[in-house]
Amino acid sequence: MGSLSLAEIAIFVEKNMTPFLQAENLSKRFGEQLLFDNISFTIFEHQKIALIARNGTGKTTLMELLAGNDTPESGQITRTGDIRIGYLKQIPDLDENNTVFEAVFQSGDIIVETIRNFEEALRLNHKDEITKYTELMERHHAWDYEVKVKQILTQLKITNYDQRIAELSGGQRKRVALANVLINEPDLLMLDEPTNHLDLEMIEWLENYLEKTKITLFMVTHDRYFLDRVCNEILEMEGNTIYRYRGNYSYFLEKRQDRMDSTAAVVEKAKNLLRTELEWSRRMPQARGHKSKYRMDRVDELKIKASQNLNVDNIELSMNSSRIGNKILDLYHISKSYDSLCLIKDFSYKFQRFEKVGIVGKNGTGKSTFLNIVTGNVEADSGTVEIGQTIRFGYYQQTGIEFDPGDKVIDVVQKIAEVINFEDGRKLTASQLLTTFLFPPDTQYSFVEKLSGGEKRRLYLCTILMTNPNFLILDEPTNDLDIMTLAVLEEYLRVFQGCVIIVSHDRYFMDKIVDHLFVFDGEGTIKDFPGSYTIWRNKQLDDEELEKKKLRKPEAKETSKPIKLKERKLTFNEKKELELLEKDIEAFEIEKAQINDDLNSGTLTSIELQEKSTRFSLISDILEEKEMRWLELSEI
User: For the whole model, what pTM was predicted?
Assistant: First the structure.
């Protein structure tokens, strides 16, 4: 291929990739609001793309169009051949009457249907059906696929197959829908905020899964660590224009800043030229004849360029925080249980001024209960909560959005205050504040019910901060907020002159803000960890690896005795799976060796080199999975 730049290599690779989906000149409105106009882009096979845009600009609407659930006002979407699209909605649309088992295995794919029927026969112990579907599993070579299915269900903690969808929480529904879309292995996987309602452990598993798989991916997410590791291209939708960045989130930040700097220079130049042209037009009214029309047209063009809004990231959140005294919040021997479930056991802590604490723990370990005890919304079973006289809480809750749908956006703010005071002495009217929070005048007089989920979250955040709290409690503040708003919120919290408690599954957000962590273990114990989320998680992984090594030592001694019988034997299905694994591993190793020889031969064309390299990488990943499973079965 010679000496090519990274950009040239990317273009070369793309030219040799299959276009899965092409969006051409798409336009869409929501009522009177124009979401996007005349946008075009292509999704190629094996690309992993993240879509970034502000709340309310139509990210979810665009996903619905691509998935075929809605139609554009103009433009067209072309799908290559009969590619299968799997779409995880931000709020899953599941049949309330279905069981978890029915929802998870809902599919038109023959292999998934075979596994579903086989698993159902096993659950119900129907021997004739087991025999029938065992033969079909053999015929469709479905054993490897079944192993992957079970791994997905295990990692997403889906075990109660008989539970009705109607009985599930929002987080449980999200996991069921995610399991279904992953199990079906579509050609193009579309995910709208996949990490919402997942705990940190599940987010890390999904991150690793998507990073390793060769599936084509198009997603919207606010989780920047997730985005950075999984995606290799970013589409930014701004001002009815699509900008492409061939790299991860870190690369996007760098190149976006370059673009903004370049645009700023163009706008400044346009403003200078506009001043010159306007002076000419005022001095020379007699020159406005036919020969000067081109200069008047130029004035109109310069006005458009010079009026571009470059303050896209300047959401000012510098509201006053009330004075904070010496006594903040003291907790003495707090305990809380629900029946036999102990969430908090004998916890004591004294908060200091300007302290920023993160709370981590799996779902259901008592994090939200703790926040409600602190704010007085829930009473502890025992112990004492003492709150300083100067403390004014600002509590941003997961379920705190309770706006009157009949209210206009400006009504929501004016109910709290007509004028808002800032730390630097400035004063803003309710309308000016909303404009600062990216609610332009035309949106301010729209009804709240017309706002997107992210816009409602941004409005809710605005109402919390404008009450001048000095102790902020944020329960999952990052859900549904766009990345741009999150970046500004992080800066506000960094300089906030008060205390902060944050519950969040957003690792990037936590790392930037908190000084230390309260770690909930699920058995009532809360440990104070002196460091960021990443430091804590790395320590946790090191401890887990150390524990595994300790457990391996006695096992090694036992397995070295060939006469010692294992406690359990391989099942019929596991024996079949082991035999198939041995055959597959041998075949893939032969193919891998052959490809390696081909790559080193020096006779391949550039296109063949690309194809062979891709296949070599795929086989390496498959072999690693199969060898791990073979080791697991061979030790039984």
Answer: 0.72
